[in-house]
Amino acid sequence: MIKRLFNEKIGRPILNLLKQGISPERLSLSIAFGAVIGMFPVLGATTLICAAVAIVLRLNQPAIQLFNYLVYPLQIFLLIPFMSLGAFIFQGDPPPFSVQELGALFRQDFWGTIASFFETILYAIVAWILVCAPLFAGIYAIGVPLLRRFGPTAKKSVSE
Fold it and tell me: What string of DSSP letters covers 14-81?
């Protein structure tokens, strides 16, 4: 059942994109950008960032958005770790982990908390860049040979 779902929701759309003439390299770039940008530690920004990257780099919009949406649970899961890693890198205060702590900070010093949280997000973005740059390279490096192997042209060359 999981294999069938994976094939219907991910495998078949990717194969269809390859059949439309998208090169494995361009499709792998779209997948890598979608997956990596999808983990960006600012909620609500990834769809627009992916769209802009796809337009500027002339990548496949459906592929980049598909992988952006597939990694959405990772974005939520990695938000606090990126904030914590950023705080560690910049030797800042670790982010508040509870709503009560955050509420108390806002009551004590509203503008200071805003500034502090803004800084935490910036630290998280730096941590994301450090983590996702090699991740991007790995996804691309693995994706190209896989897409070449399983793409429509691979079946023709095997049968010849």
Answer: HHHHHHTT--HHHHHHHHHHHHHHTT-SSTT-HHHHHHHHHHHHT--HHHHHHHHHHTHHHHHHHHHH
| pLDDT value of position 89 | 94
Could you tell me what percentage of the chain is helix, strand and coil, using 3-state DSSP and rounding each to the nearest 5?
80, 0, 20
Rounded to a whole number of angstroms, the distance between the first and last alpha carbons of the chain is 33
The token duo for 37 is 């940008």
pLDDT in tens, 117-145: 888 889 999 999 999 999 999 999 999 99
Q: What's the rounded Cα separation, in Å, for the pair 29 and 96?
A: 35
Per-residue pLDDT tens digits for 6-30: 667 666 766 666 567 678 899 899 9
What burial class does residue 109 get, using C-beta atoms within 10 Å of its C-beta: 0-12 exposed, 13-18 middle, 19+ buried? Answer: exposed
Burial 25-60 (b: 16+ CB within 10 A, else e): ebbbbbbbbbbbbbbbbeeeebeebbeebbeeeebb
Q: Are 79 and 39 in contact (CB under 8 A)?
A: no
The two structure tokens encoding residue 98: 């509870």
Q: pTM of the predicted model, to two decimals?
A: 0.76
